[in-house]
Write the structure tokens for this entry.
Amino acid sequence: MLTVPNIRRMKGGDKIVSLTAYSAWMTRLIDSVTDVLIVGDSMAMVEYGMSSTLGLSLDTIIGHCAAVNRARQRALLVCDLPFASFERSPQQAYESAARVIAEGGADAVKLECNEAMAETVGFLVQRGIPVMSHIGLMPQHLNVQGGFKRQGKGKTASRELVEQAKTMAHAGAFSLLLEGVYSETADLVTQSVTVPTIGIGASQGCDGQVLVTEDILGLTGNNIPGFARVYQNLKPDIEDAAAQFAQDVRQGAFPKDA
């Protein structure tokens, strides 16, 4: 099974493959080809139909993380700390992260981080909790950032994001997730830090890439972001299977008598 040091050593080498996982059955399908499984708070929208990630509870994400942990065999398991579960203080973050690791079986936690969170990142790492810092477009900060907008455009914004990345790495984050970051800025960040960067809607130059698994399978319909790629559109097949079952039931063709 891959570990945090394994992922750190992939900086500048083999690309890191990451996908989201929210369930045991999906984990069994994707674990063998994935380096990092992320139990993301994106499940709020993908699995629960919420309009943002803000309504997801710590208890809910821990339950999903435990399911993924029971099914994985290879990948490093990283779990998000949801909104309002870590921002108040480093102590609150530690208590939430400890639950994610002890109850959910995660190897590491992911935090949406601005520079104010550097103390928290250091606090966790010093107490044995590995941290992936999420910077750039931060869905938990959508009200501050004005929605789901790409980050790091222009020299000032780019310089600020690079400095933020350096701060997170210096605080002890073992990797950085760059979401919705302009390619030029994402490349600068990747070149400026000694820890791996994993992009989502960022640059090909990142040390790895992550997408929401349901997006690459075409299961999120019109909600698939523009930067994602549908590798296999399973939505019509699932709809057809359900329609055929419904037809068989209504016509008395299922089940067959023994």
